[in-house]
Amino acid sequence: MTATSTQKTAIRIRDLAFAYNGTPILEDVTLVRGEQVTAHVRFKGGATRTLTVPLPRANWQMRQTDARVVQEIDSLLDEHTEGEIAGIYKTVARQVAIKIAAKAKDFSSKFPSIKISKET
What we know:
Largest sheet: 5 strands, antiparallel
Strand order of the largest sheet: 1-2-5-6-7
Structural class: alpha+beta
Strand content: 25-35%
Number of domains: 2
Low-confidence stretches: 1-8
Shape: flat
Distance between the termini: 50 Å
Helix content: 25-40%
Number of helices: 3
Order of helices and strands: EEEEEEEHHH
Radius of gyration: 26 Å
């Protein structure tokens, strides 16, 4: 795989390993990163596709507490201590976990039954 920089924010990738029955299906892919990520894909035979996806959020953004939660905690602080608020959220988390567990499906019937005997 070789990659060449066509711009500061674009990368062109050739000789991709994507294949079907040993035959390569992609000619090349150009990735352009701006306000979003755009992939220009050219297939063997000349067909092209353009895919656009939003930029991934930074790690600190993914771990940042939602503003609605912060606002709710601020309003609870007027009438409750920090320990009471923690208890409230613990109760809510347990209720959510119980609801999720109740919706869980049993997939054991999808697996073959295995019998173990002393003779084998």
